[in-house]
Each structure stands twice: as C-alpha cells, then as structure tokens.
Design goal:
Blueprint: E1 2-6, H1 31-34, E2 47-56, E3 59-70, E4 80-89, E5 92-106, E6 112-130, E7 133-151, E8 157-163, E9 168-174, E10 177-183, E11 186-196, E12 201-211, E13 216-226, E14 230-239, E15 242-253, E16 257-266, E17 269-280, H2 301-304
Length: 316
Amino acid sequence: MKLSLTLAAIALYITGSACNDHLYRLALNQRSFYNPAALCPYCKGSYFLSAGLDFSPDVVGYGEFYAFGDDGKNKMHGPWDAAYYHSSSSGLDMNSYSFRYAYEKNLAYGWRVSAGIRASFMQVQKQFFHEGVSQKMGTSFADLDAGIFVTNQEGFYVGLSAQHLPAFSKTLQTGEEQSKISMNRVYGMNAGGVIPVCDLFDIMVEGNGVCDSSEYSSQLNAMVRFFSVVGVGGGVTYSQKNIPEYELRGGITSTAFKFLASMEFTPQGKQIEMGMVMRFERDGGLRFLSTPCTGGTCSAPKAHKKKKKDEFNPHA
C-alpha cells in the first residue's frame, strides 16, 4: 500500500488550504509564521510570549504552537524568537522546533525595514495498520524560510516571504508499506493597517495570501474595535480548489495582553482557532508591559488619546 503525504511547514494545523500549507487566520497573533522578518507594526517591540490552539469539533485532531522572543530594540539588532509546533490528526503526528532572526534598519520618517530567516527541524510520524498490527514510519528534515518586511510603525505594514526553500520529496519504506513525503516551496504576502473612524472606534484590516506553482489561497478580514481594545469582525478565505469560507472573529487587543479567536465555517465543519500574546517590560524583570488599556478597560477617552505609540493604540 502506498501512502502519499504532502507537507508544507508540516501542515502545523489540522485544516490545510492552498499549497497544502495552513493559512493562519489569526495572523495578528502569528505574524512571524507568515514572514520571519515580521516586526511589530504598531509599537517599538518588547519581550513577548505567544501561544495558540487550532481544532475542529467535527474532526479528531488538533494543532498547537508556543513561541518566546524579543521584537524590540536589542543587542541582536532585530527581532528573534524560538518556537515549537505540534499537530496530530488521523494517525499523523508532526513536531517542529524553529528559531528565527531578522535584521532591521530604520528608514526616514519613522519607517522600518527588516530581512529575516527561520530555520526549523521537523519530525513526522505516521501510524498505520497492516494485517491488524499497528506500525509506524517516520522521518525528520530541516526547513528554511526567508522574508522582508516594511512598516511605518503606525499601523501600516507589508511583507513578502518564501517558505520551505529546500523543497524536497522522499519515499519511506516499511515492509510492504510506502509513504511519499513532499514539501513544496510556497510564496506569501501579508499586509494590513488601522483605519481611524473617531475617538472611540477604528477598523483593523488585514490581507494574507500563499501560493505555489499549482495552487493559491488568500484571506481578507476586518475588525471594528472600541477604544482600540475590544474588537469584533469577520473574514473570508478564497482558494483555487474550494468555495469561499467565511468566519467570525473577535477578542481583546490591549498592549500588554492580546487574545483573539475565530470560527470558520467549512464543508468539513467548523474550524476554531485562538491565540494570545503577552508582552513584558524590557527592564526590571518579566512583568506585564504598562498600557493605558490593560485588560481591555479604559477609564476615560483621555487614556485612548494619550500621546503614546503602542501596538494597539496607534492614535497619536
């Protein structure tokens, strides 16, 4: 029996899209997964800890990720983070350990540009049954991503990336069982910004896309936010081989703590993704970054209009 597995970024989550690569719906939580050169487009950066979970109530399996790093001014002259990913579905277990680094440079008028890479070590294991006996086959391999990123630090950003540069295909043999594992090179683009509406409301918009030589997928989404903290909105994903898939999203986007969740409606059932990011002070130990809207509450409009540039309050 021959089993074919196409892996791009080892399909970190259960639901794949174009190019067999997961199109992260909550890119605001996972900018560096789209592009290893990603900077904070709304702030000067800080130490951060992020985590997320992806699952479907209608499908057995799940995906999870954890990352810790620093995307502020530091001795390495650019953002870095270390990350771990795991997914499990239909007897297929995948793990990835990665490190990314980007060199950044200040441009005129507050603009910043960066170029980065991410190196990963991946492990794949497939469980199957042959004549009633459970068997496993697996392999490990290295991966490399690269990208560039530009932002004005006031909400607008655009990035280009090339993922899985060492594209390859290999066949594993265990007795009568064969497994073909391949990983395609994928190109991506992401862009976004914040549109002020009034003192109390703004709109956060974002677009993302990935493609390879045979398939593409793109996503557009927007959230209306109150006090630049509490947001609710939706999005749509277009892909070459599927009908449009719609989603609802919302959450809290304060400077020190961010939590976003989405529910996408697909032919296979609902797909839920959620993630959080915590930011910490650069000096004085790992305590929460100070913010006028910590926890999603602001006591008065003055706090919202305070002349302080931070990740989720770009108004100055």
